[in-house]
Write a structure and sequence with these properties.
Number of helices: 7
Number of domains: 2
Helix content: over 70%
Oligomer: single chain
Strand content: under 5%
Number of strands: 0
Order of helices and strands: HHHHHHH
Distance between the termini: 74 Å
Largest sheet: none
Length: 169
């Protein structure tokens, strides 16, 4: 508070909504106080500049209905694509879980994970965490070969069949 004028009183005064007694007090004070007069002038200019900038922004940024429709359509299309990518990655994780479940009774849960990690390392994925729909087939082929070496061709065929992605069928 400077010169008995609170920040709230200044704000109301500048916005033109001050109570009559506050307005009268500030009106009486301003002509006799150079620092408050300069503050008032500076704030009035700043508020005017902000109002002009806001009005200009509204003129420039106002969108027509077709523009708004086009932008919304693009946003929704992006959201659908993100959802589709998430759904595909969920499918990959589900298949990985199925393969681990199938392999665990034959070679143990830890060995099943290690075999899957090894298959990923020797595929374009390079790691189990980076297996995607794009590199799924080479990963599954490598895993099937490792399964054949560990448990035979019948087990490898089971791994191949259980590893097929629904999106690839």
């Amino acid at each position: 508070m400077k010169h008995g004028i609170s920040e709230e009183d200044w704000q109301d005064y500048l916005d033109g909504v001050a109570r009559p007694e506050v307005r009268e007090r500030i009106d009486a004070h301003l002509p006799g106080c150079l620092s408050c007069w300069e503050f008032y002038e500076q704030m009035t200019a700043s508020v005017a500049d902000l109002r002009r900038a806001g009005e200009e922004a509204l003129r420039v940024v106002t969108l027509s209905d077709p523009q708004l429709h086009r932008m919304l359509r693009n946003v929704f299309q992006e959201l659908r694509q993100e959802t589709s990518a998430e759904e595909l990655q969920t499918e990959v994780q589900e298949r990985l879980d199925v393969l681990q479940t199938v392999m665990a009774p034959y070679c143990g849960p830890q060995a099943a994970v290690r075999v899957m990690e090894r298959a990923a390392q020797h595929s374009p994925a390079l790691s189990l965490a980076d297996v995607t729909t794009e590199n799924w087939e080479p990963f599954l082929e490598r895993l099937t070969k490792l399964a054949a070496a560990l448990c035979g061709d019948t087990f490898a065929r089971l791994i191949w069949e259980r590893g097929q992605l629904a999106s690839a069928r």
